[in-house]
Write a structure and sequence with these properties.
Elements (H helix, E strand, L loop, with lengths): L1 H24 L6 H13 L6 E10 L6 E8 L3 H6 L2 E3 L3 H9 L3 E3 L1 H5 L12 E9 L2 E10 L7 H42 L6 H10 L3 E6 L4 E4 L1 H7 L3 H4 L10 H13 L4 E8 L5 E10 L6 E8 L3
Antiparallel strand pairs: 1-2, 1-6, 2-3, 4-5, 5-6, 7-8, 7-11, 9-10, 10-11
Helix pairs in contact: 1-2, 1-6, 2-6
Length: 309
C-alpha cells in the first residue's frame, strides 16, 4: 500500500511540476513559437500516460481561418511534417477535434487509417487535443502514445488543463501584438500628420476616436490631456472629468506604483498587465502598452486593451 501511495505522490508531483513549468513560460519574454516549443517538450516528457517523445502544436492564423498551421513539433518524420503542416477543420482526427472542441483519442488501428500518418506513424495511439478560447478553437495539440494505451480520466483532465494554459499563452501574446500594432499605427499617423496639420487638436481627437482600444494621453507629470471615445465609454467618465484627473486615478494603487517605476526608467515601449479603475469603482483586468510621443517629446501615450472584451 505504501508503494502505491508513494507512486501516486510521485505521479502528482511530476504532473503539477509540468503544469507549473508551462505556467511560468506564459510570463516569459520568449516568442510565442518558442513558448509553444518548450511547452510541447514539457508535455511529452511527463513520465506517465504512455506518451511517446513526439508531438506537435498547431495554431489557427488570422489569414487562414478554419485551418490549423504547424507551430511547434518534436521527433516527427519529414513526410508527416510536410503532409500535416496544415490541417483543414474537419479533416482527419485533428480536424474533427478542432470542430467539436473535444479531445479525440484514436487507437493504433484507427491511427493507421489516417492518410497523412499512415506510412510513418503506425502501431501507436494518437491524441488530438483542441486549444480553445471562449469555446472557439484557436489551436490543437497532437500527441502520440504507446500501441495498447487506454485513456484515463486523469490524463484527460491533465490535457484539458494544459490546453487551457496554452490558450492563455496564445491569447496573451496575441493581445501584446495587437497593442503594439495599435500603438505603432497611432504613432505613425500622428507623426505623419502632425506637421502637416499643425498638431490640430480636432484632427488628433479624430485619430483617437478611430482607434478601437482605450487611448490615454498625459503629460510627463501624469496629468491627463485627452482620452478617446472608447476610453470614456469603458471608464464611464466624461471628458471634463478625465482631463481634471491624473493617471494615478485610473489604476489600482499597487499596479500604478509598478507603472510609475516603469515610467521613470523606460523610454521605449513596454507592456504591462494592469487593473483599470472605472467611475463605478470597479476594476477591469487589462493589458497596457505605453510609449513617449515621438513628435512632442513631452506626452506619454497609453494604449489599453480590456481583457474582458
Amino acid at each position: 500500500m505504501s508503494d502505491q501511495i508513494n507512486k501516486e505522490l510521485e505521479r502528482n508531483f511530476f504532473l503539477q511540476n509540468a503544469i507549473n513549468s508551462i505556467l511560468q513560460l506564459s510570463f516569459s519574454d520568449l516568442t510565442l513559437d518558442a513558448q509553444l516549443q518548450q511547452s510541447l517538450e514539457l508535455i511529452i516528457s511527463v513520465p506517465w500516460f504512455d506518451l511517446l517523445l513526439k508531438g506537435a502544436i498547431y495554431l489557427v492564423e488570422d489569414l487562414r481561418p478554419g485551418e490549423l498551421s504547424l507551430k511547434a513539433h518534436s521527433n516527427l518524420p519529414k513526410d508527416v511534417l510536410s503532409g500535416c503542416s496544415r490541417i483543414t477543420f474537419g479533416s482527419g482526427f485533428c480536424g474533427k477535434a478542432a470542430i467539436s472542441g473535444k479531445i479525440i483519442f484514436s487507437d493504433s488501428i484507427a491511427s493507421q487509417k489516417q492518410a497523412h500518418c499512415k506510412s510513418k506513424l503506425q502501431n501507436m495511439g494518437h491524441y488530438s487535443i483542441p486549444i480553445q478560447e471562449h469555446r472557439r478553437t484557436i489551436g490543437l495539440i497532437s500527441l502520440y502514445t504507446k500501441k495498447d494505451h487506454q485513456p484515463t480520466q486523469e490524463e484527460l483532465d491533465f490535457f484539458n488543463t494544459i490546453s487551457n494554459i496554452i490558450a492563455g499563452i496564445v491569447a496573451r501574446k496575441y493581445s501584446e501584438a495587437k497593442l503594439k500594432k495599435a500603438r505603432v499605427d497611432l504613432e505613425k499617423i500622428v507623426e505623419e500628420r502632425t506637421i502637416e496639420l499643425k498638431k490640430s487638436k480636432e484632427y488628433f481627437e479624430n485619430i483617437l476616436s478611430s482607434i478601437n482600444e482605450i487611448v490615454i494621453v498625459s503629460n510627463t507629470d501624469g496629468d491627463i490631456k485627452t482620452v478617446n471615445t472608447k476610453g470614456m465609454d469603458v471608464l464611464g467618465y466624461t471628458e471634463d472629468e478625465l482631463v481634471s484627473m491624473t493617471i494615478s486615478d485610473l489604476f489600482e494603487e499597487e499596479d500604478y506604483q509598478i507603472l510609475k517605476k516603469e515610467l521613470a526608467v523606460t523610454f521605449s515601449e513596454v507592456n504591462l498587465s494592469i487593473r483599470l479603475k472605472t467611475s463605478l469603482g470597479t476594476y477591469i483586468q487589462s493589458s497596457l502598452n505605453f510609449s513617449r510621443n515621438r513628435v512632442t517629446k513631452k506626452d506619454i501615450i497609453f494604449v489599453v486593451h480590456s481583457m474582458q472584451e
